[in-house]
């Protein structure tokens, strides 16, 4: 007695169609996934560092604070270090920048500035702003927000002088003292009054 393989149930035309459609779908999904990984042609285009409003505001800062050194588009991670925590804590700084950093002539960061404009009304922008505010505060870094087009030179000047006065009155250490550990063990509230 010989045994024969029977494909009667498997070779049914319906099964062939189902298997064919599944294979086509699988191949299509793999093709799309491979294309996403590879991406298409990439063009790298130069874009302005600042928007027109930021450029105008920078000119206002220079005019109001001639003795200050002003940096633009400063990465949060360049000013704030994360100690402890996990990757999620470090990721909060990832790809976030302060619009301006106002520094003394010797390079000490006095405070940072965020310029809020019409793009800051959506809920997601307010959430990002709140994250920046909280991180800057926790690090003892003063952050001042101005509304685009609604601040004058006198306000910029008085805010600058107020921060200089507070720093002098509080005996604020320099940024270098902070880096060297002069504030180690002190609360972030004390750091924020100094910085």
Automatic annotation (TrEMBL):
Q: Name one Pfam family in it.
A: DUF2726
Transmembrane regions listed in the UniProt entry: 12-32
The answer to keyword Transmembrane applying to this record is yes
Q: Which InterPro entries match?
A: DUF2726
Keywords tagged on the record: Membrane, Transmembrane, Transmembrane helix
Q: Where is the DUF2726 domain?
A: 47-160
This chain's protein is named: DUF2726 domain-containing protein
Species of provenance: Paraburkholderia metrosideri
